[in-house]
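Sequence only, no structure available. Ideas?
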Amino acid sequence: MVDGNEMGDILAADGTTLIKSSNDPDFNGVISDGGTGFYLYTNWEDRPGSMSRMNLSNLGAGETGYQNISLEGMLDFSSVDGTWVNCFGTVSPWGTPLTAEELYFDDTADWFDESYQYFSNPQSLAQYLGYPTDGSGAWPNPYKYGYIVEVGTSSTAADPALANVELNKLELQGRFSHENSVVMPDQKTVFLSDDGTGVVFFKFVADAAGDMSSGTLYAAKVTQTNGVSDPSEAAFAIEWIELAHGAEADIEAAIAEYDVGTLASPSYITDQQINDWAEAKLSQDLDGSGSVAADPFTDDRPAFLESRKAAVALGATGEFRKMEGVVINYGLADNWWNAGAADGDQAYMYMAMSSFDKTMADDEGDIQLDGTHGPCGVVYRMTLKENAGNVDVDTMVPAIVGGPYYSDRDVNECSVNNISNPDNLAVMDDGRLLIGEDTGNHENNVIWVYEDPAL
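Reply:
I predicted one. Tokens follow.
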């Protein structure tokens, strides 16, 4: 067990060296302790990242609350070589926290570039792993970070001994700037949001319910409502493009091949290799070279390790902006699924976009919105559907759009009577949506309760 002196203390893999004391909590996940209490797992969104666990028990009468609150400590992520910018998350239907690694390295080459403005980030991982931070020795493998991490596999999330909590990075669900993932009631389908500029909406479908060790990764190709640029009216039809099918053991073996990378001799998948892989899959000349390249790999590693670039190369839409929380209410979704998944009144999935300017409003590509109020953000609604025995979505509709945006203001640039930069979301049992702001465009960040007219 790694246990700092205070909540948010992040220790190195040696279990003793304090790297930093984080002040950046994010996701909270609640797991029953098997009695009257629960475990509270909290993300610490830092570089390296971590999670803490508290136990709350002995619920008192009336409004006295839980009588026993125990800060148990910080999870030890050394078994997976540490974790990175643990952002939002969810809890799986089988009771395990799913914490998201938000990897802001659009180009893996930057991981090895000492002139890169955020080079101190991989340096912090080198410190965590006990490597020389000047790059004179071993260097962190970039392909070990940027995933959904399952906490408490084999039902250990509620183990009384914190040291027994198992960890597993779900590499088959892609490597990118994960905001969070949400597992559907079929326990096979997972939708995943990608936080950044020019990003992709992903879906993973496991081969077997409750088993994420093999399955297929998809990316969304969207078509905007013809002739409609108003963000409050423009919907998107979704086509899912298959990137690849894979098995966890095979991808982990591919990742290990890049352990040899150093600053002097970087090791990563190049853009040319991604192009050549895509050309071989599509049997098309994508780069105008006059010929179709041979596949440089014997597997589909670009799909899982360079997921965003691979998706765009295969034709998916890579124009979303600041994609944030994606959530359902498990109770409502379970009821819909177990009742036969009929069309009509049913549960919805919601996704926040903190902003819809820049790549969503540049008059190019698949998404061409009016970005006048783009800095204020939008929340989209997606109707759950049954497709070939799995849960699916095929349309993204604006539920609530932020703004107006006042560029001439120094404070409250987005109207205080509406949302600004929606981030984390939660669907209550009655279907109402909680929208948490993470904004510099409101003087005070607030949580909104949204009563969706679609309900």
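The radius of gyration is 22 Å.
Hope that gets you unstuck.
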